[in-house]
Design brief:
The chain has 338 residues and is α+β, with helices and mostly antiparallel strands. It is elongated and about 85 Å long.
Length: 338
């Protein structure tokens, strides 16, 4: 490799090592990382190169009291240094991420992503006269069902919970249960986080118990990080926990053999998006569609069925049919009352 090419590659490697302020890196650490990549260069040469690079690039040196080391950072808020250059499609992706996740990401993550967001907006602005520049006007993500406003989150709580989850540490918090007027104090072991529509849930255990709980982040009043490591229940797996239907609010543990008759229009989507792997759809003599499927008996399933109103009739299980009949009778009494 020629001397000029080697120097260029080494300088690019150094620029990629330097973090964005307020985080920094010293020349000794840069030298060690360069050595790991096969670059044999002195600390004096590295410092000299960094000084030269600080002219075209927004990097700066900081002297710390009581230290003889040279510390370097990218200027806070400076545009991201991308190799290869950010593409229009990547820029569009970053703008969509910013739109939909800004309110639910902690400040530390946003501080890292903001330069990329800024660069993405800048690139799309430059392409405004082209079809790339107008892509963000053509894509939207809509929730299924009635749209609700996101629950209000306390930024300092969100920051602490994310930090506890990432560092696998316990935290102490005050939390208000649904419907309660007063908060209570808990020691929490974070296991995972689940985003469900407008709500963020923390999957966790409390104190020394091993039963897994769900806690909505917007109901936390305070949160303080603790030094102790979290404790994880034996064989816990977040995907397996979700797969048990815990976020569908199970009514009973066992699955049911559901039989229901749908109006043809109400059943249309089931031909494309089945309710279960063993689902069957059969045309009835009166032109309706009979569904048969093995499903978990959850509150969410019942809400879904009730949402069709008079366009679906539950046939079996008989117990579920009786529950629906009782609900419909109550609704009839309610609307007939003056």
């Amino acid at each position: 490799m020629s001397t000029i090419k080697e120097t260029t590659m080494r300088c690019l490697a150094m620029l990629k090592m330097i973090p964005r302020a307020p985080v920094d890196i010293d020349v000794d650490t840069i030298a060690e990382k360069l050595s790991d990549q096969g670059y044999d260069v002195t600390r004096r040469t590295i410092q000299r190169d960094l000084v030269k690079l600080s002219n075209p690039f927004p990097i700066f040196e900081e002297k710390k009291e009581g230290s003889r080391a040279n510390y370097w950072s990218w200027s806070e808020g400076s545009e991201a240094f991308d190799i290869p250059e950010m593409t229009p499609l990547a820029a569009l992706t970053f703008t969509l991420v910013e739109s939909f996740l800004r309110d639910v990401l902690p400040r530390t993550v946003l501080n890292y992503l903001n330069p990329h967001f800024k660069r993405a907006r800048s690139l799309l602005d430059k392409l405004q006269s082209t079809h790339f520049g107008r892509w963000h006007e053509k894509i939207r993500i809509l929730p299924r069902g009635q749209a609700l406003k996101p629950a209000a989150l306390k930024p300092e709580v969100l920051e602490t919970v994310y930090k506890a989850l990432m560092q696998e540490r316990q935290f102490q918090a005050t939390y208000r249960m649904k419907g309660a007027e007063e908060t209570k104090s808990y020691v929490i072991h974070p296991l995972g986080m689940v985003f469900r529509n407008e709500i963020i849930y923390l999957v966790c255990t409390l104190w020394n118990y091993t039963d897994v709980k769900q806690m909505a982040l917007h109901r936390f009043e305070t949160a303080e990080l603790l030094d102790q490591s979290r404790q994880v229940p034996p064989k816990f797996d977040l995907d397996a926990y979700i797969g048990t239907g815990e976020f569908s609010y199970p009514v009973r543990e066992t699955s049911i053999k559901l039989r229901a008759v749908f109006d043809p229009l109400a059943a249309a989507h089931l031909f494309e998006t089945p309710l279960a792997d063993d689902q069957t759809l059969t045309q009835t003599d009166n032109g309706k569609v009979e569904l048969r499927a093995t499903v978990k008996n959850t509150a969410e399933l019942q809400w879904w069925l009730l949402g069709f109103g008079d366009r679906v009739e539950v046939l079996k299980p008989k117990k579920l049919r009786a529950e629906f009949s009782a609900r419909i009778s109550k609704l009839s009494e309610m609307y007939q009352a003056q």
